[in-house]
Known about the structure:
The chain is an alpha/beta fold. The protein has two domains: about 1-70; about 75-195, 3-Layer(aba) Sandwich (Glutaredoxin), CATH 3.40.30. It has four helices and six strands, in the order αββαβαβββα. The chain has helices at about 1-70, 120-130, 145-155, 190-195; strands spanning about 75, 110-115, 135, 160-165, 170-175, 180. It has a six-stranded mixed beta sheet. It is rod-shaped. The N and C termini lie far apart (about 125 Å). Mean pLDDT is about 85; it is low at about 60-65.
Amino acid sequence: MASRTSHDNNSRQARIAEMRRAEQSRDRRNKALAITASVAVVAALVGFGAWVMIDKKEKKDAAVAAAKAPVNGEQTWDAKTLGRNHVETPVKYPMNPPVGGDHSPRWMNCNGDVYKNAIPEVNAVHSLEHGAVWVTYGEKAAKGDVDALAATVAKTPYTLMSPVKEQAGTIMLSAWGKQLTVDKADDPRVAQFFTKYVQGPQTPEPGAACTNGLAEK
């Protein structure tokens, strides 16, 4: 009888030991799985963070490159050759509309101002010196394009717009030392020119006023 009891105790202890081993094996597997999952999560986060940083850098580099690249078709004049004297006498400019040169001491208001009539060049040039983009249009410009450009100018500080009857191009955009000619208001280069040259790097006097100047009579 004692032998049977001893056998039963041994069997019970063996089952308990086996259960403990199985439990320990489960714990080891669970820990291994947890560690593997943690490593995978960390790796994914590190990878995502690296991707975000690389993506931001690529976008920044692309923006810098775009800012430095000229707008396709634009004309450029050497800023050093453009006079910047304030004069009270008429100025004969070598380009129409002018993109720089000696000018009136008073600027045209250029806080999104849309002028229905021609404005004095000598005052508009002073606005360009302050970093404004001057949008002009000739008689060939369609009314829809004129209206679309007027809407864009009206909501854009450091811009102004007026008709120039004698200009060669249908629609022309001028900044200090820069000029672009397009046929339609929806030409993507219009937005590019605005982005690049409204208070752009070409500006001789960045941050100077575009209000309290000369207004349309």
